[in-house]
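Could you show me just one protein sequence together with its fold in token form as a worked example?
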Amino acid sequence: MDQVIPFAVKPLGVRGRIVRLGAVIDDIVSRHDYPEPVSALLAESIALTAMLGTALKFDGKFIVQTKTSGPVSMIVADYAAPGGVRGCAKFSKEKLDALAKPDQKQLLGEGYLGMTVDQGADMERYQGIVPLGSSTLVDAAHTYFQQSEQIPTRLRMAAGPLFERGEKKPHWRVGAILVQHIPVEGGLPPMNFPSGDAPEGSEIETPEDDNWVKARLLLDTVEDHELLDPTLTAEEILYRLYHEDGVTVYPAIPINRYCSCSREAVSAMLTNFSGGDRADMVKDGTIEVACEFCSTAYQFKPNEFDLAE
């Protein structure tokens, strides 16, 4: 169930991807003590990252990051080939408690969404940035594709905790589906992510044809519960949407949780601090550092380092 499935509706000139994450997103969310609205926002960010990261045609990373003035001041989600995802968030409990029933637009507030393609240390990084202001993640993603790819795009996402039969504790799930219109001869080209954004203030006119209108209107009929239902497969969702025109489903890309932290890496980081700074970190005779992504806590004794350095 933790996978991304590419697909195409060739008679409509449409390509797309559908993401269904169960155990992976539940594992990531359960490692943090985030309020439910923050967890849902993080889950959707990870689903978006997995969707776009698996479209890259080389090994590397795809990173989605927000920085805003809202209650959720930052989200970082990244995809590392060939299928690893992770993510974390920072939020203000005070700002969050001040909202009666926060929606995504309120959670994010003013700021920006950045999408970065990292091909490795010796390669150039590509980044696209779109503003956030009265926008959801879906709104921002639509703006990104309009400015950077100039391809008609439609995206739906949903996330939330679900109780499964016989379970006393809910499990988090997230689902997302994207379609893009590529009416060209000779098939559907691979996705790519150009670095250049459209000039500020420019208007991109994308004429709609009947095939694209049909494809996006059908996508808009997808309900949140369909994207989250563990008894409904991705193939069944695609069949419900596009069986009239025929949908081609390509091999699934499995998704797993990963983290690059290790005791050795944390120890090396601490070595770079001054002795005084490390001394200030000592509590109850121990230096403890927790990974922001996976919440794993690493403990060190002061005598493992020279505090006089």
